[in-house]
Amino acid sequence: MNIEEIAERLAQTGYIVLDKQLPEKLTAQLSARCRDDDQARFQAAHIGRGTDKKQIQVIRGDVIDWLDETDDTDRAYLDWMEELRAGLNAALYLGLFDYECHYAIYNKGAGYAKHTDVLAGKRNRVLSTVFYLNEDWQPKDGGELILFEPAGITAIATVKPKFGTMILFLSESFPHEVLISHNTRRSIAGWFRVSGS
Predict the structure, then answer these.
(1) How much is the pLDDT for 43?
(2) Is the CB of residue 182 less than 8 Å from the CB of residue 31?
(3) Integer Cα distance of 126 and 89 in angstroms
(4) C-alpha closest to that of 180 among 79, 82, 125, 106
(5) Helices and strands: H and E segment counts in the chain
(6) Using an 8 Å Cβ cutoff, are 128 and 171 in contact?
(7) Dihedral, CA atoms, 70, 41, 196, 9, nearest 10 degrees?
(8) Exposure winner among 23, 79, 82, 122, fewest CB in 10 A?
(9) Helices marked H in 43-180 — which ranges?
(10) pLDDT in tens, 98-157
(11) Is the predicted pLDDT of residue 81 greater than 70, yes or no?
C-alpha cells in the first residue's frame, strides 16, 4: 500500500492495519535485533513522566530498548518511518515533526492495561505505530492489541502480533491495551510527534 492510500485510510477511520509493508529482509533483521534481549540492554518500561514516572508491572509488563541511530538495522527502520512521516505530512498536513520508538518485549504473563499514548499536560504524540516481529506467532500465544473507540468502551479492532504486521492510529483518539502474552511477544512501538513535544 502506498503512502497516499495509507493517508486516505487514516483520514477516514483514524487507524490502519498494514500487512508486510516493510521489506521482509529488514523485518527479519529487526526481529533479530529484538531477540538480543540482554538484560543490560532491555530495561523495565515505566508509566508517567518526570517525577510521576514509575514502574507498575501489573499495568505495564514489557521491557524496552530505544532504537539506536548508529545501528544499520535500526537506521533503516528509522529511514523508512521518516519517508512515511514526510508523506503523511504532505497528504494530511499533520505537522509531524519527529519520531521516537523502542523495541518492546512482553514475556510470558506480561501485558499492558488500557491506556492512551498521549502524555499528560500537552499535545505531543499525534500518531502511534506498532510493528510486530513475531515470526512464529500462534493464536494461543495471546498478546493481541485491542483498539477501542474514543470513549474507550467498545473494541473496534483486534490486531494479532504477527510478523510484519503494523498498526498506525491517532494517539489522542484511541485507547488500547495489550492482552496478556502466553509466549514472548516482540515489537517496535513508536510515536510521531509535533514540534515542541
Answers:
(1) 87
(2) no
(3) 12
(4) 106
(5) 3, 11
(6) yes
(7) 80
(8) 122
(9) 72-92
(10) 999 999 999 999 999 999 988 665 668 999 999 999 999 999 999 999 999 999 999 999
(11) yes
